[in-house]
Amino acid sequence: MVDSRTCARDGSDGEACTTIADMLARVGDKWSLLIVRTLGAGPLRFNELRRQVGDISQKMLSSTLKVLERDGLVSRTVVASVPPQVEYALTDLGHELLGPVRELAEWTSTNTPRILTARAAYDARAAGG
């Protein structure tokens, strides 16, 4: 994890380190990755996005979208209709993040058997005491 001590050791700019830490926290958050992955297929209205993401509350989806919008990863467009509807889409920056997100998902899929084996071995050692 990037923190102020790491930045002090390698001489990195403090603002850059803070941004890196913030973004690693963002992409490490369960909902952000699922939302980015889901919007990778194209723009969606709020309720459709909520249905596709799955077990996410309206409040959590709303707050996560606001953070993603603030970071420049998601755009919010009000669609002129009655009633007005809001559509969310990945920005160019969000599409750039989609590549590493897909690679991480592929890595996880490829290594799932190894991960499950490691977990089972750890759990057996922990249970034995």
Automatic annotation (TrEMBL):
UniProt entry keywords in alphabetical sequence: DNA-binding, Transcription, Transcription regulation
Keyword Oxidoreductase found: no
One Pfam family from the record: HxlR
InterPro entries: ArsR-like_HTH, HTH_HxlR, WH-like_DNA-bd_sf, WH_DNA-bd_sf
Recorded superkingdom: Bacteria
Domain HTH hxlR-type: 17-116
Entry keyword Electron transport: no
PANTHER family with a match to the protein in the record: TRANSCRIPTIONAL REGULATOR, MARR FAMILY, TRANSCRIPTIONAL REGULATORY PROTEIN
The name this protein goes by in its record: Winged helix-turn-helix transcriptional regulator
Organism ancestry: Bacteria, Bacillati, Actinomycetota, Actinomycetes, Propionibacteriales
